Inverse folding.
């Protein structure tokens, strides 16, 4: 049986996975034979508005605490798939949000993918062309080619030109030949190279994530009903505030807008993120306050 893992973007067979739903009556256990009605399961593809799943999930006949979810090809045609599960009747199982990030290939495809690459393999020219195998499947030739590389690089220190670094490979990484000062060479220019100090040490590395003093659009969060603390609260006028590096809370620059099923979003301005540690506070009438703390990157 072919696997469905991981989820492939816009795959003809879609994507199938299983979940369990927590009982509202006892949140320590999964709900047996949960009642699932139209509108209970929605999907948002790449931040689009949520829509009902094409195929309504069903309870597994062999194990009634397991629910089978099937996504169509169209429902996998995105980089981020958010499945929002909310009991329309509101009295049996707890809300659940699942986010799936799609990939280009499944594990089952790797053998065929590697084989196709090997089929287009061509023998190199120049260095070691005579000893490198023409048939990539011939392991004995590959071993022989590897042995040839080892033989050609043995005792490389004695064979290198004496002009490199005073006739030897210096053990110090900091040693360099005249005119090769890393503080003035390509390490500091152009702008997309690593920044270094006068000694040639790297001083700054770019890290992905939420950046300090940089706007971030479509920051999403869930607001829940203050009565049961689980049901997504809709129709709220949400007040958004932020505390920067432990300072007093102040209003965010932009207003909050509703997405669906208790999910809201806000465009965070650069001024809202101008600190190392940001705490966001979202409040609304008859809803639990939502607190989110962020560590920014430079």
């Amino acid at each position: 049986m072919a696997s469905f893992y991981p989820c492939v973007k816009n795959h003809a067979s879609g994507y199938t996975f299983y979940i369990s739903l927590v009982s509202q009556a006892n949140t320590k256990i999964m709900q047996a034979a949960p009642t699932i009605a139209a509108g209970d399961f929605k999907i948002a593809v790449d931040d689009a508005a949520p829509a009902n799943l094409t195929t309504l999930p069903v309870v597994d006949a062999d194990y009634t605490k397991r629910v089978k979810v099937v996504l169509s090809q169209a429902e996998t045609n995105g980089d981020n798939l958010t499945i929002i599960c909310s009991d329309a009747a509101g009295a049996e199982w707890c809300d659940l949000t699942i986010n799936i990030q799609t990939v280009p290939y499944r594990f089952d495809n790797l053998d065929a993918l590697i084989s196709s690459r090997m089929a287009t393999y061509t023998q190199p020219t120049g260095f070691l062309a005579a000893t490198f195998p023409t048939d990539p499947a011939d392991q004995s030739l590959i071993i022989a080619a590897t042995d040839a590389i080892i033989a050609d690089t043995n005792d490389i220190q004695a064979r290198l030109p004496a002009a490199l670094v005073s006739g030897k490979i210096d053990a110090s990484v900091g040693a360099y030949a005249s005119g090769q000062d890393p503080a003035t060479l390509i390490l500091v220019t152009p702008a997309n190279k690593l920044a270094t100090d006068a000694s040639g040490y790297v001083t700054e590395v770019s890290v992905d994530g939420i950046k300090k003093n940089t706007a971030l659009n479509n920051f999403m969060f869930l607001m829940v009903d203050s009565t049961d603390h689980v049901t997504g609260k809709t129709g709220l006028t949400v007040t958004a505030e932020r505390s920067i590096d432990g300072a007093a809370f102040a209003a965010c620059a932009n207003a909050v807008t509703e997405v669906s099923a208790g999910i809201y979003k806000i465009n965070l301005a650069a001024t809202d993120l101008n600190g190392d540690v940001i705490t966001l506070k979202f409040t609304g009438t008859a809803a639990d306050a939502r607190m989110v703390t962020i560590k920014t990157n430079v």
